[in-house]
C-alpha cells in the first residue's frame, strides 16, 4: 500500500514560472484554481492523500509525509516545507522555466508552415503585418494556463494595443504565433520521466476544450488513423527524451490536434508540452517506453 502524500495543487504554476520573483496569485487566479481543484484530486490523489490549502493547518498525522505539487515551484516547496511536509526532489527552477516555455516545444519537431516563435516583438510584428489581410492568428505567451496568456490577431495590420501586447509578452520569453484554426480533434498523451531518464507513457486520450483552449475533460479511444497515432507516439517519445536531456524529471503532458484544410485532414502531433502534471493525468496506465 502506497504511503500517503501531501499535495499542493498550484495550478497557477505557469504564472509563477513567467514571473518567479516574489510571485503571489491574484484573487482572480485563485478563483480559477479553486474551480478545478476537485477535478484534479479525482485523478491524482490516492487513498489517504491530503491537500495543503494555504492558511489551513495540516492534520498532525500528515506532518512529515512526502510533499507533492502540481509543479514543484519555489512557492510550492516553501509552502509544503512550512506546513511540515517533506517535498520530493524536483528539477531546478531554471529547468522548469525552460522546458515549460513555448520555445522548447517549438524546437522539438518540424512545425507546420506558418508558425513563428520569437522573443523579438519587431520580428513578430513584421511577420503578422506581412501576412495576408483577413487571416486569423493566435499568439501565445511563453507560459500560460487554462487558455490564458493568448491573444487573437488579424494578419495584414496590427493595432497599437496588439503591438503593445506582443512587446510586453516578449519581456516574459519567446511568443509563439500560429494560424488560428477550427480544430477537428485534440489529443493528449501523459507521461513521466524518471530521474534516471527512463520514460513511461500512457495511452492517448481525446481532449475536450472550450473555444479558448481551456480543458473540459478527457475521453479514451480518440478517432486517430494509424499514421496520426504513429506520429503522436513518436512525438511523445521524442519529447520525453528531450525533457530528460534538459535535466527534467517528473510528469508531463503532450498536446496535439487535427484540423481540416482544403478538404483534407491535417495533423500536428506536438502543439504544446507541459512539464508538470496536467488535467486528467493519472499514474495508472503508464507503461515503459522503449
Counted up, domains total 3
CATH C-level name of the largest domain: Alpha Beta
Shape summary: globular
Q: CATH superfamily assignment of the largest domain?
A: ATP-grasp fold, B domain
Strand content: 25-35%
**So how many helices?**
8
Q: How far apart are the first and last residues' alpha carbons, in Å?
A: 28 Å
Radius of gyration: 19 Å
The CATH architecture term of the largest domain is 2-Layer Sandwich
Which structural class best describes the helix and strand composition? alpha+beta
Average pLDDT, rounded to a whole number, is 93
Number of strands: 15
CATH fold group of the largest domain = D-amino Acid Aminotransferase, Chain A, domain 1
Topology as H/E string? Answer: EHHEEHEHHEHEEHEEEEEHEEE
Task: Describe the protein's architecture and organization.
This protein is an alpha+beta fold. It folds into three domains: 5-90, no CATH class; 116-179, Dna Ligase, domain 1 (2-Layer Sandwich); 181-288, D-amino Acid Aminotransferase, Chain A, domain 1 (2-Layer Sandwich), CATH 3.30.470. It is 29% helix and 28% strand. The chain has helices at 13-18, 27-44, 74-82, 93-99, 102-106, 121-129, 160-170, 226-245; strands spanning 5-8, 50-51, 66-69, 86-87, 116-118, 136-140, 150-154, 175-179, 183-193, 199-201, 205-209, 215-220, 250-261, 264-274, 287-288. Strands 9, 10, 11, 12, 13, 14 and 15 form a seven-stranded antiparallel beta sheet that branches. Helix 6 (121-129) packs antiparallel against helix 7 (160-170). The two termini are 28 Å apart. The model has no long low-confidence stretch (mean pLDDT 93).
